[in-house]
Amino acid sequence: MIPVTRRAAMVLAAASLVASAVSATALSATGAEADPADGKAEGTLTVNGKATPVAYAYARQQPGFFDKNTMDTLVIVSDVPLDAKALADDFARIDLAKQGKLHAFEITIDATGTPISTVWRHEGFGDAMPSGISSTDVFTKKVLDDKVVDGSYKSAEPADFFGNTYSFDVSFRAPIAH
Q1: What tens digit of pLDDT does each residue of 99-111 get?
Q2: Chain centroid to CA 64: how far?
Q3: How do strand 164-177 and strand 148-154 relate by DSSP bridges?
Q4: What is the pTM (predicted TM-score) of this model?
Q5: Is beta strand 148-154 parallel, antiparallel or unpaired with respect to 138-144?
Q6: 11 part of a folded domain
Q7: Of the ranges 6-15, 41-50, 84-93, 152-161, which one carries the lowest mean pLDDT score?
Q8: Rounded distance, CA 48 to CA 17, Å?
Q9: Residue 178: CB partners within 8 Å, gap ≥ 6?
Q10: Half-sphere exposure of 71 (CA within 13 A, CB side)
Q11: Cα–Cα distance for residue pair 70/125, rounded to 1 Å
Q12: Contact indicator for 73, 176 with CB cutoff of 8 Å
């Protein structure tokens, strides 16, 4: 048996209490626990005049859409923390959005640091949600490497999708999952 000093025992007990408190307060609407490695987002997603603040950012690398020899980075900014299933499955995010449990904006950034696609996840659009990109929207890249993505993205003006107006103004910083 390895002897444990009183100080070490106190540090371990305090760490255990902090971990328990964080876990107990980190439950999300999706049933996921927030992970300290999750990124942070700020800003709003606005659909039909209703603004939803975002607080969470997630990022992962995936084979390039246009060039499979490069890596694109998918960034998801959302109003609720997402569990592993929702992060890995587009259809899970679509279902959560249709139920009004998720309001998210997804940005695919190519290896050069240029956005090449966006997708909305929001019940305000009904069954069809906008995707694509506008060259007039303003993307600012602060950092994009194989470890972290940090930037902001803002629509130049409100857009229309089958009678639904929408705009976004978000900033994010997230570790990149591989």
Answers
A1: 999 999 999 999 9
A2: 19
A3: antiparallel
A4: 0.79
A5: antiparallel
A6: no
A7: 6-15
A8: 44
A9: 60, 61, 146
A10: 14
A11: 33
A12: yes
Residue 126 located in a structural domain: yes
Asked if residue 9 is part of any domain, the answer here is no
Report residue 5's pLDDT band, with 50, 70 and 90 as the boundaries.
very low
Q: What is the DSSP string of 4-68?
A: --HHHHHHHHHHHHHHHHHHHH-B-TTSPBP-TT-EEEEEEEEETTEEEE--EEEEEEEE-SS-T
* 21: in domain: no
**Nearest-angstrom CA–CA distance, 76 and 13:** 35
Could you list the residue range(s) of the whole structural domain that residue 137 is in?
36-177
The amino acid sitting at 71 is: M
Residues 35-80 pLDDT 10s: 545 799 999 999 999 999 999 999 999 999 999 999 999 999 999 9
